C-alpha cells in the first residue's frame, strides 16, 4: 500500500487524511484469491435501480447486481469514502489514514494495524464474467412456482420459453458484463450502452449463470435485504418480484441448462413519470392473499 498524495493537505476533524484513487502515488489492493474450486454464491445484492426505484418509461436504467461468497476466513478490505460531490462517471472515492504518507508492502501485517484504514471482511464479491442478461415481455400470470404456467429456461438461447412470454430478448442491444465499480467492488451490469424500456408492460429481467462454469446459485442463495428505512419505494408493496432459481431447476425437458438464475418481474407503467407500478401487485397478490 502506498499513500503519498493526500486529496486535501489538511486532516479532517477526526485526524484522517484521504487519498484518492487513480492518483499517481496512491495504490492499495484489497484481499483477493483465485478460486481453485467451484464457487457457490451465498448472497446477491441487486442494484438500487431495480430493487428500490420506480421504473420510468423511456428513461435509462442501471441494471446491475453483485454476487457474494461468505468467507470462512475473512480477508482484508479498505474503508472507502466518496471524495467528490459528483456521482456517476466523475465520482472519486478513496481510502483514509491517520498519517499523511504511508508506504507498506501489501503482505505486511502492519497495514491491518492502521486505525480506520482497513477492516476484515467476511464477504467477497465474486467475478462471474460469463453471466448473461435477458429481458423479455410477458402477459399471462397464474399462481405457480415460476409465476408463469409451464415456463422453462432454454439455456441454449438464454431465454424463457412457454405460453404468455415473448421470445425476443429486448436486452440484446446492451453491453452486459463484469466490472469494478468506483468503490472497488466486482459487479455485473450494463455499462457502455444503458438499457431503457420503450414499451409499457410486464417484463422479466433475468440474470443467468450458464451451465458448466465454476460459479452457481443454490437453494441457499439469498437476496440481500434493502434498507427499508431509507427507501421511499418498497418493491414488495409495489408488486415487484425477485426470485432465485437454483442450479439445474426449470430447464427445458428437465435438462440441466444453467448454473442458476435470478429474475426480477416488474411492470413498466404507461405513464412517463413512472406512476402506477403498484398495479402489478394486484396480479402477483390477489385480493384474497396478503403481502
Q: Can you offer a commentary on this structure?
A:
The protein is an all-beta fold and 291 residues long. The chain folds into 2 domains: 2-30 and 80-116, no CATH class; 40-69 and 126-284, no CATH class. The chain is built from 2 helices and 22 strands. The protein has helices spanning 48-51, 281-284; strands at 2-3, 17-20, 26-27, 39-40, 43-46, 60-61, 64-78, 81-82, 93-97, 102-103, 118-125, 132-138, 152-154, 159-161, 176-180, 186-190, 195-196, 201-210, 215-216, 222-223, 241-245, 258-268. Strands 5, 7, 11, 15, 16 and 20 form a 6-stranded mixed beta sheet that branches. A 4-stranded antiparallel beta sheet has the order 12-18-22-21, with no helix packed on it. A hairpin with a 4-residue loop joins β13 and β14. It is globular, with a radius of gyration of 22 Å. The termini are far apart.
Key descriptive features of the protein:
six-stranded mixed beta sheet, 291 residues, four-stranded antiparallel beta sheet
Briefly summarize what is shown.
With 291 residues, this protein is mainly beta. It has helices at 48-51, 281-284, and strands at 2-3, 17-20, 26-27, 39-40, 43-46, 60-61, 64-78, 81-82, 93-97, 102-103, 118-125, 132-138, 152-154, 159-161, 176-180, 186-190, 195-196, 201-210, 215-216, 222-223, 241-245, 258-268.
Amino acid at each position: 500500500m502506498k499513500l503519498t498524495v493526500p486529496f486535501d493537505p489538511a486532516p479532517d476533524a477526526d485526524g484522517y487524511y484521504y487519498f484518492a484513487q487513480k492518483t499517481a502515488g496512491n495504490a492499495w489492493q484489497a484481499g483477493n484469491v483465485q478460486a481453485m474450486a467451484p464457487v457457490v454464491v451465498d448472497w446477491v445484492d441487486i442494484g438500487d435501480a431495480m430493487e428500490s426505484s420506480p421504473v420510468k418509461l423511456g428513461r435509462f436504467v442501471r441494471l446491475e447486481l453483485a454476487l457474494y461468497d461468505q468467507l470462512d476466513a475473512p480477508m482484508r478490505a479498505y474503508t472507502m469514502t466518496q471524495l467528490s460531490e459528483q456521482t456517476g462517471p466523475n465520482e472519486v472515492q478513496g481510502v483514509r489514514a491517520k498519517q499523511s504518507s504511508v508506504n507498506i508492502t501489501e503482505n505486511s501485517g502492519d497495514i491491518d494495524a492502521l486505525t480506520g484504514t482497513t477492516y476484515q471482511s467476511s464477504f467477497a464479491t465474486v467475478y462471474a464474467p460469463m453471466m448473461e442478461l435477458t429481458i423479455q415481455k410477458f402477459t399471462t400470470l397464474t399462481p405457480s412456482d415460476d409465476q408463469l404456467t409451464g415456463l422453462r429456461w432454454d439455456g441454449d438461447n438464454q431465454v424463457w420459453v412457454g405460453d404468455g412470454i415473448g421470445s425476443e430478448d429486448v436486452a440484446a442491444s446492451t453491453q452486459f458484463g463484469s466490472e469494478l465499480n468506483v468503490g472497488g467492488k466486482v459487479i455485473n451490469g450494463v455499462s457502455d450502452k444503458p438499457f431503457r424500456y420503450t414499451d409499457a408492460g410486464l417484463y422479466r429481467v433475468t440474470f443467468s449463470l450458464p451451465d458448466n462454469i465454476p460459479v452457481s446459485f443454490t437453494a441457499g442463495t439469498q437476496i440481500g435485504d434493502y434498507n427499508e428505512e431509507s427507501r421511499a419505494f418498497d418493491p414488495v408493496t409495489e408488486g415487484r418480484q425477485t426470485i432465485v432459481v437454483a442450479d439445474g431447476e426449470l430447464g427445458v425437458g428437465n435438462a440441466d441448462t444453467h448454473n442458476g438464475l435470478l429474475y426480477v418481474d416488474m411492470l413498466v407503467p404507461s405513464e412517463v413519470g413512472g406512476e402506477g407500478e403498484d398495479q402489478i401487485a394486484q396480479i402477483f397478490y390477489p385480493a384474497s392473499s396478503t403481502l
